[in-house]
Amino acid sequence: VGLDNLHREVFLARSPELWLKPKEITRLLEDVLHVRRENISKYIDNRKIVAVSPKLPEKETASTATPALTAADAHAPVSVQTPAAAREAPPRKTTASVPWNEAVLERATLSTAAPLPQGRTMLEPAEAPPQEIAQSKHTASIVDFKPQPFEEEPCLVCNLGMPGCAVRKIRGNVEAIATSGDSQYILRLTNEDFDLLSIPVHQSWNEYVRRLKSWLDVNESVPAILLHLEKDGETLRVGENSLLVIEPDWLINVTDMTKVEFCSRKLLLDRFVGSPTNEHMIRGNLVHLLFPDIWKAKRGKELAQRRLELLRKQVGDFIASESSPDQIAQKCDDAIEHISQWVDRRKRATRLRTETFVLSPTLGMKGKIDFLWEEPTKNQIVGIGELKTGRSQGDSPKPGHALQLLSYTMMLLARGEISIDEVHALLLYSGNEMLGNQGNNLHRKLAPTFQTVRNAVNVRNDLVLMELTGASQFETNMNKCRGCKDFNMPCALVALLGDEEDPRPVETTKWLPPHIAIPSERAKAFFQHYASLITAELKAVKAIHANLWRKTPEQRVEQGITFRVESFRNAAPLKTGYCYELKGPNKTDFRVGDAVLVSDERGPSLGRVSLGVIQGTSEDGLQITSNEEIRFAPAWVDPYTNENLTIRLFKGLYRFVSNPTHLHDAIFDGKSPEFGSLPISDKSLVDILSKEELNDLQKKALQWALCAKSYCIVHGPPGSGKTRLIRAIVKAHRLLQKRVLICTGTNRALDEAMKSVLTEEMRKEALRLGDAGAVTDSRVKAVTLEGLIEGIEPLDAKIAAGIDALRNRAVVGITASSLQSGRYEKVLGEFDLVVIDEAAQLTAPATVGCISFGKRFVLIGDHHQLPAVAQSEGLDHDDGTDANGPWSRLSKSLFEILYERAIKNSGREIVLLKDQYRMNDHICSIPGVMFYKGALRPGTRKISDARLAIDVRGLEGLERKVLDPQESVKFVDAPLDDSGGLRTNLTEAQTICRIVRALILCKYGLDRDDALGIICPRRAQVELVRRQLEQLLKEMHRIHTPEGRQILDSVSTVDRFQGSQREMIIVSFGMTDGVVSEHLADERRLNVAMSRARHKLILLGNRRALSDEPLFAKLFESMENELPYEDWYVKAT
């Protein structure tokens, strides 16, 4: 990992004493690397850590030796002081009178009858430490365990007016829960500085701690934050007024907390069962959008016009729900009238903020607050509001709504943005009838108390455990279950699939309708396996979010993750939302369409934040759009992964498993697909084949797609004409009057497939669903839902046209994620065939979610290219395949699973497209031999003989050698070079600049988007190459030209180039030292990088270092044997 000697010493000094799981090693390394050099010595002395109870802060005195524990001491908390955080004060050393492991065990066990959980052992140190360890001169106390400045927050409980705390917060991992002699629970917690603490717990927490203990029985540890710790004699404890937040990095969306009001299983069921758009959602959204206009005193015609504008913007929701504005008109108008009366009776001296996103890593919550009222002159929040379109529960708010508003209030209190004495929290029920009491019947006030806050935190903790375990408590009130029309069947089915123990008096199977079969054992195993993998993936996504508060903004900027804003301005106003231009040196890898989190100077965890989407990038700034107005000075822009994309995998998995069809036999039971006779006449087939100009293997793939009774697989290497094949498959099925669904993993891949389908006769039958704003091709945009209804009036006719398109368009294209959102499920219906392009890039749950919409399916892809992205996996992972079924790791696609199964059998269902129409013969020979067993070949003589169109007669030296058009593949041997920074190679970057300069001088035409691609496996090398190119372009006065912008935009990672191609590809491996990382030695990434090139491929790296890795040794052997010239190898000089 590039540790220098000092940091390596720190790591080696600290790691042997820790109970480390593999993933925790990464966190430790990051922690060590962030230590300031001036504090290195404080860490090196901290070699031995013993378990202690944190002592209260006291006046500093001369420290004394700490005696060893006696047997009597084992029944009481240890009252020695804990080591301080190294960044705050030097650690102490203590005396151990027994061997180290025994001393730690004895001090960690506060009851002689409370050993570590069965199977748990301490990690042996690398070498036995001395038994006698000297005491240091300084004794630190628990007050030294304070967070970094960027994490400073006020104490939430103190802000509620409770007695002051002894210690505000301790963060760490609860390793075990023991009991003392008086049956008091003791938390054993390893804090962030890896000190093992033993903290007593007040008896008021007993019931909750017992539940937490049962969770620990099957898990190694639970991350937790202890808030507002209290005095307990000479030590600290989790007191009656303390708070315990488990898995704080697992931010729960506050709106999810409202779902458990009626039944604790509601959130679990929502994870698997989608909620299609309905008229209640549309009405609520419309009223929310109108509230700012009502607050600004818009009335009469002005408000009616605004209402009509918003109705038009929601036309897609009306179409998806098959509803009309007339169905919501009366209730909507009543709500608007009630809110207007309430507002008219209020002084509107405050400023309104809407849809304000807020997160609290301390409480483990996040969400969007409907309304905030600010005092304009002080910019201080004086009111928090949530708007509900229904009615209150008499004089009280509904419990779920109160919990939601309380949670928002807690987050703002915890962040120090409000004072409990100076803020009003209101729930507005627009469904309440006005009774003439100055509109006061509309709102319900909320006054947070400690007990309600503690209850909210515990509800949040329960939801975390539910999401982690995939199980929740059943409702004991049978009247509720019988009245739950929407969920009694899914509730029972999810319980059966998960093998949950159902304590209800009615047998679980009795809740299933007659037409729903009891799940088979194979179906249950499939469901449980992938549900657990998706949960692990969701946890990994949450961990990525945690970098926003685990690392300082400066650290994230240094890693190339975060953009530092130096100035900003409002750009042109949009019809919906706001647009901003942010200026500053752009060293990130942001791309158009990326979701981001914008924050002020204090950073995302404490500062004000706003969600946005990247609309443009340049070397000196970003352009973003946001649904909310940014009323603060942006300082940082961070990537913000949308966890909903992961959650949707649950829905795809459930949809397939819960609807048994003949496809279950193919997936679960491993049945080889059967093929029937051609359902199309010979004349029609010949007509298609002649018009599409298919080669022999493409013809075979088309026949298999027509004849397969369940599925077939098309293995399509790079450039093998997959989109042409898709067009032929769609055309043939339309001749048979069959409906076809085309699915892909990305918008880019979907648009490529749809472009190929959009022949003149197909345009009236095609529909492209999803985000129309992500579509760049005009032909595809014309067949989006928005494009088809554009210009149709009035509004009802527009909605009717959209519903007709959804029901009757025969060729529908949509991404897998959009399909599994459930938005169009109500009206899409069933398809005769599902075609999944780039299927090897989709997870198995995403794939089965798509094929659940069809009777048959065709998988088209290449498992030798990039796999599905799984944040929860490394490159070196266990396959995890179950011998009894197709159960595998999440990143292994269903395409690859079925492909491997077919190879073991006859392989009849697979068609390999051997002819490719991209790479010339030189380039094709390398991946062809390395990854496709020599089967890959140029499809035509023209493709084979194509060469780079460049005149190199004016060039000399290295530039002339590598750009020689007659020698299409070159390897440039660059020395190892770390002068450009960690994981970079400055020599390689400078060599790229020499090549680009030569291309400019040769007038190659680098302003074209398909001319050049520069691929760097590592993000750090991407940034270094861009900086070097920026300098070159400035020197050549081309930095602000179309050519210059295109050159800078051509540099990216392998992942960004999947599915694209360029005339010339330059690959820079960024060799800092002689270590070839697993990421660098991934054969699929190497295959993608090389196979993007049509006419020229240039590789840069250190040959000697790479040769030690088998993959690159094979690369050099292939180049030596396959290329028809000897000087493919050039020294970087």
TrEMBL record:
Catalytic activity line of the entry: ATP + H2O = ADP + phosphate + H(+)
Q: What class of enzyme is it?
A: hydrolase
Cofactor(s) the record lists: [4Fe-4S] cluster
Domain (DNA2/NAM7 helicase helicase): give its ranges.
693-790, 805-873
Q: Where in the numbering of this chain does the DNA replication factor Dna2 N-terminal domain appear?
A: 228-345
Carries keyword 4Fe-4S?
A: yes
Keywords tagged on the record: 4Fe-4S, ATP-binding, DNA damage, DNA repair, DNA replication, DNA-binding, Helicase, Hydrolase, Iron, Iron-sulfur, Metal-binding, Multifunctional enzyme, Nuclease, Nucleotide-binding
Q: Tell me, which GO biological process terms does this entry list?
A: DNA repair; DNA replication
Identify the domain of life.
Answer: Bacteria
Tell me if Iron is a UniProt keyword of this record: yes
Fetch the Pfam families from UniProt.
Answer: AAA_11, AAA_12, Dna2
* One Gene Ontology molecular-function label: DNA helicase activity
| Domain DNA2/NAM7 helicase-like C-terminal positions | 891-1103
Q: What does the record give as EC number?
A: 3.6.4.12
Listed PANTHER family: DNA2/NAM7 HELICASE FAMILY (PTHR10887), HELICASE SENATAXIN ISOFORM X1-RELATED (PTHR10887:SF495)
The name on file for this protein is DNA helicase
According to its UniProt entry, this protein's organism is Desulfomonile tiedjei
